[in-house]
Design a protein that fits this description.
The chain has helices at residues 2-8, 12-21, 40-50, 53-69; strands spanning 28-30, 36-38. The protein is mainly alpha-helical.
Length: 70
Amino acid sequence: MVSFDYFRRLGHDNHRGLSKLYVWEEKRSKTSWGGQTVDYEKIGAATVQAMKVADLNRFLVVCALVFDLL
């Protein structure tokens, strides 16, 4: 829960960076105004829930450093 909450607060650019770093599939969906978007929170929620404790600890560290990693 803490890991996902921290992930949600990172911002769009950091979400994109984590998605590329972890090679998450970026499924695009149509928006109401005709564009396309990626729901990084949905992707992140599914991935974080599947992580084990050691992976969650590593994920928190990567989230803290993602801005410097990109």
